[in-house]
Amino acid sequence: MQRITKEDTDIAESEVEEYQYRHYRNLRKGYVKVKLSDITFKCPFCSGKRKGDYIYKELIEHAKGVISHTNTLKQKAKHSALIKYLENYYEEKDSQPAERTKQHSSCDNDRELFVWPWMGIVANIAVQKKDGRYVGESGTKLKEYLINKGFNPLRVHPLWNYLGHSGFAIVEFNKCMSGFSNAMMFEKDFEATHHGKKDWYAKIKYPGKELYGWVARDDDYNSRGIFGDYLRKGTDLKSLFDVQTEEERITSTLLSNLTNEIEVKNQHCKEIKRKCNETSISLDNVMKEKDKMNRNFNEEIRRMQQEARDRIENIYHDHEKIKLRLESECRELELLGQELEEREAQNESERKRILDEKRKNERATMEQKKADANVLKLAEDQKRQKEQLHKRIIELEKKLDAKQALELEIERMRGAVQVMKHMKEYGDPDAQKKMEGIERDLKEKEEELDILEELNQMLIVKERKSNDELQEARKELINGLKDMSNRAFIGVKRMGELDSKPFQNASRRRYSSEEADCKAVEMCSLWEKYLTDPFWHPFKVITVEGSHKGVINEEDEKLKDLKNNYGDEVYQSVVTALKELHEYNPSGRYVIPELWNFKEGRKATSKEGVAFILKQWRLRKRKKN
Questions:
Q1: What is the 8-class DSSP label of residue 4?
Q2: Share of residues in the chain with pLDDT > 70 (%)
Q3: pLDDT tens column, 71-88
Q4: Residue 247: C-alpha distances to residues 82, 180, 264, 449 (Å)
Q5: What are the phi and psi torsion angles at 236 (to 5°)?
Q6: In this structure, what DSSP letter does residue 45 have?
Q7: CB of 212 within 8 A of CB of 115?
Q8: Are 207 and 200 in contact (CB under 8 A)?
């Protein structure tokens, strides 16, 4: 069974290209041996799997077979690097020499190994011995010299050893292709003046005073000189083809990332556009609602202004009347003043006046007592009138029943008369006598019916009058009890008015203590406005036992949002106010006062209101005594 090692573990697809390039670079630098002789090769990645050697063509076929049959991405990447290396640096021995020469000549420039990042070597820099060490010009002056010649170096590093300045310097260029072009121009400029690399090594013993320069390649990288040691520290060997391939890979990756990012941005832009459209539609709706509210507000303002003008005009007329009356009273007071001045000297008259005032006070006290008695009498009269009204209603119902029975009797007798008329035509004398008797009874019943009809109309008129008096008395009860505390059992309740306590409790749960009261007032005012809005009708009609009945529509959007956001307590408060408005004032949709039994939570009767007033009057009378 094959043993699985750490090297055999697979890699991600995004790492395949980098993994392939790493093995290709190791093959190119000679870290991994492939060639055994001029015609024999070996597979460095399958050494333990097959004994024997390969020729060029067999090794190529072996690598392709592994790529097509293996499932691991690592093995595919390794053998792809092997095929690329063999195709770039070796050819099949039995191929034609002419083809090899042509291929090598077309690929020499691309396959030549350079030190990367691109480096140039400057030799024969003038030095002089000072204090036992060699010194020379700084790299800054040499850099300025090269910049002036148009080579655009990044940095210039003079090379030093234990003796001092070595006379060599490394010129560093940009890593991009423009840096490579500058490096080649740098080399060709020195070669044009016969101060290139070959010239340096040819004249190394007698170089003269001129500078020599060339682009660093693989032989310089692998040399044992001072610049070879420097180059091997932070650089690598790459061909122009490798650099171009790497740049294309980086560019492709960057382009793919940018494409993905652009796609994400486009999706984001579409989402923003969608939200903008939704916001625009919502804003249009809000503006329409605002215009509608402004129109309603302006109409309401005009109405209120007209009412204010009418009220001011009425006040002005009343003021004029009061002014005239005051002027008349002032004149009367002036006359009285004159009379008092004339009587100032008469003490007897003054004493009489004091006695008169005393008597007036006594009369006023008596009047107050009479007024108290009248209140009691009014309450008793109200109670008695109500009882009389009930008696009249019962009497009216009895009269109505008697009237209906009499009408039925009359109809029966009329039918009998018609029958007798038919019998008379046949000459029956007995039938004629019976018919005359029935006609007399019918006439008497009709007269009795007319009397009952007149009596019925009188009772209806009296009932309406009593009912009006009862309603007026109820209104007076309501007006008299308006200012009384709700802690009493009987009082006045404003039907359709919102209870602010649930709103305060909900605001304390949702907001801080500083904001709670303000938010509760705002929310309560908003829902009071909704309650008086005639265009909002959160009711539905259902049929109960054959009759139609209006109930709260629990699916109304405003009520559902209120319940979800603020809870059942606030929801029940709004629903209660809606029900009261629907019951007591469905057309006006404004708050009205009603006599209320707070103990039992229902509408109070007039009898209960009168009894409550009598009780309060007796308590106050007892306290005075």
A1: P
A2: 80
A3: 788 888 888 888 888 888
A4: 21, 13, 25, 121
A5: -145, 165
A6: T
A7: no
A8: yes
Measured CA to CA, the distance from residue 251 to residue 328 in angstroms comes to 109
Do 554 and 563 form a contact (C-beta atoms < 8 A)?
no
How many CB atoms are closer than 10 A to CB 328? 10
**Residue 119 in contact with residue 152, Cβ under 8 Å?**
no
Q: How far apart are alpha carbons 478 and 584 in whole angstroms?
A: 15
Per-residue pLDDT tens for 222-253?
A: 888 787 888 888 788 888 887 878 777 888 88
Residue labelled with tokens 């106010």: 577
Q: Using an 8 Å Cβ cutoff, are 231 and 220 in contact? A: yes
Instruction: Please list, in sequence order, all residues whose beta carbon lies within 8 angstroms of the beta carbon of residue 496, skipping any fewer than 6 positions away.
Output: 531, 577, 578, 580, 581, 584, 585, 589, 590, 591, 592
State which H helix or E strand residue 331 sits in.
Answer: helix 240-343
Cα gap 180→117, rounded to integer Å: 9
- CA-based max dimension of the chain: 182
Q: What is the pLDDT of residues 415-456, one digit of tens each?
A: 766 666 665 555 556 666 666 777 777 777 777 777 777 777
Rounded alpha-carbon distances, angstroms, from residue 5 to 2, 17, 33, 435? 9, 22, 22, 134
- Identity of residue 567: G
The token duo for 451 is: 């009397």
Residue tagged 């005359």 (tokens): 436
In our burial notation (b when 16+ CB lie closer than 10 A, e otherwise), range 523-543 reads: bbeebbebbeeeeeebbeeee
Q: Is residue 117 reached through a cis peptide bond, with omega within 30 degrees of 0 on the bond before it?
A: yes
**Secondary structure class of 35 (helix, strand, coil):** strand
Angle 70-72-74 (CA atoms, 0-180°, nearest 5)? Answer: 115
CA-to-CA dists, residue 180 to 48, 120, 149, angstroms = 42, 10, 16
Q: What DSSP string describes 87-120? A: HHH---TTS-HHHHHHHHHHHHHHH-EEEETTEE
Candidates 18, 2, 24, 13; CA nearest to 72 is 13
Q: What is the pTM of this model?
A: 0.31
